[in-house]
Design a protein that fits this description.
single chain, 137 residues, two-stranded antiparallel ribbon
Length: 137
């Protein structure tokens, strides 16, 4: 694929697609199953989604591994992230306080400019990470 000929938005989408797979594969067990962090549903990683703790898909939070975790379609889409349960997960997993949760939530208002070149570099970094994960399986 010649990524250099793609528009920035397409490169960003390709980055998200790879990042989403990385998140979902990383949390999967040896059989390829993972658990939704908000409701506990178990399913194959391919059927799960990478759900953002912070609303919005701006560049500040889009590819932040601490803010993206496996979620089932129902929690991520129908329940808009199932936020109450997601907050509980974040507190349990990372030991976050209410104040820290509020600070993370404010990231949805931050903006971060990423150039086309930076997106291309990020894409190849993610591709390397994805291939490394696959080689270990």
């Amino acid at each position: 694929m010649k990524i250099e000929k793609n528009k920035t938005s397409k490169i960003k989408t390709k980055c998200w697609d790879l990042f989403s797979k990385i998140i979902r594969i990383t949390y999967a067990d040896w059989r390829g199953y993972e658990v939704c962090v908000t409701c506990g549903k178990t399913d194959k990683w391919e059927k799960m989604q990478a759900g953002h703790f912070v609303d919005g898909r701006n560049n500040t939070v889009l590819l932040d591994k601490k803010l993206v975790h496996p979620q089932c379609w129902n929690c991520n889409c129908n329940l808009s992230g199932n936020k109450i349960q997601y907050v509980m997960f974040m507190k349990r997993t990372y030991g976050l306080t209410d104040k820290e949760i509020e600070k993370l939530d404010q990231k949805k208002f931050e903006t971060k400019k990423i150039s086309r070149k930076e997106w291309i570099i990020k894409y190849y970094e993610l591709l390397d990470e994805y291939n490394e994960i696959l080689s270990r399986q």
